[in-house]
Specification:
about 280 residues; alpha/beta; six-stranded mixed beta sheet; two-stranded antiparallel sheet; 12 strands; about 30% helix; globular
């Protein structure tokens, strides 16, 4: 049985793919006054009053105790921060009810984000969080990054998800503060706890890719199913959500920038707005 193939539902050839990710990178960067890839820095600047949505971990308890009002610390963002792309290469990413699968979108988004980061002189690294051995340390070499993206365009049907384990293995090996961008469907039960752990020392962004079938919009009846990668059995209805919807609150509490992206809806405008908002608020650490 053949277990690997090129993305069959991605109609682009190699040159068209490179043009597509270049246009995506330009769209993400156009009109940005500040880089969306500047993460929380380490040089303290000042404290200011807490605003709804500010991460709890940045509360300045000393100033809060003195004034009786919640304050958060602000830091000067570093000029350059390595960007690590964590791309989920597991089988569930390739199953789709749409023209483009979650995986095809993840590869294009990873390419666009990588080029946009390189445009701002942020080194880019790559870690596959399926079962293939794919780990590239951050570099400013544009050709090398594009080669990685072309490697990602080939997938295997039998890969399980290893997001949680790979994150826990990577954290102790990273000495410099990084921006981690996770592109995944978050089917790994250990994914969210591992990302929350990573957010304690690093800047984290999660792009949660969802197929409409996972939101229970297939119109089918009641059925029993097993999640192929984890073996978890569940009962669902064609109009009920198949997986728990707790990622938003769990990640936001720990200061992780979280964006759900549905593959049946326009993705670029939402991502661009998300990145623009991030670029305007990243001075706070």
């Amino acid at each position: 049985m053949r277990h690997s193939a090129q993305l069959t539902h991605d109609p682009l050839d190699a040159r068209q793919f490179e043009l597509a990710v270049r246009r995506l990178a330009d769209a993400l960067s156009y009109g940005q006054e500040s880089s969306p890839f500047l993460g929380a820095g380490i040089e303290y600047v000042q404290s200011r009053l807490y605003q709804p949505g500010d991460p709890v971990k940045f509360i300045d308890w000393r100033v809060t105790g003195r004034t009786g009002r919640f304050h958060v610390k602000e830091y000067e963002a570093p000029r350059q921060m390595p960007v690590y792309l964590l791309v989920d290469t597991s089988a569930s990413m390739c199953i789709t009810s749409q023209h483009l699968s979650k995986y095809a979108w993840a590869v294009q988004l990873a390419g666009g984000l990588a080029l946009a980061a390189l445009d701002h002189m942020n080194p880019v690294g790559l870690l596959g969080v399926g079962e293939r051995e794919l780990h590239q340390t951050p570099t400013l070499a544009r050709n090398a990054v594009m080669q990685w993206m072309h490697q990602l365009r080939h997938y295997r049907f039998v890969e399980g998800t290893t997001l949680g384990r790979r994150v826990r293995e990577l954290i102790p090996r990273i000495e410099q503060r990084c921006l981690f961008i996770v592109l995944s469907d978050l089917h790994d039960p250990d994914a969210i706890p591992a990302i929350r752990l990573m957010a304690q020392d690093h800047d984290c962004m999660v792009l949660h890719l969802e197929d409409p079938a996972e939101r229970g919009q297939t119109g089918g009846g009641i059925f029993r199913a097993v999640e192929a990668e984890t073996g978890r059995a569940f009962v669902a209805h064609g109009r009920s959500r198949w997986f728990a919807e707790d990622a938003t609150h769990a990640l936001s509490r720990d200061g992780v920038d979280y964006l759900p992206l549905q593959t049946d809806r326009p993705i670029l405008p939402r991502l661009r707005h998300f990145m623009k908002s991030r670029g305007g608020t990243r001075r706070m650490g």
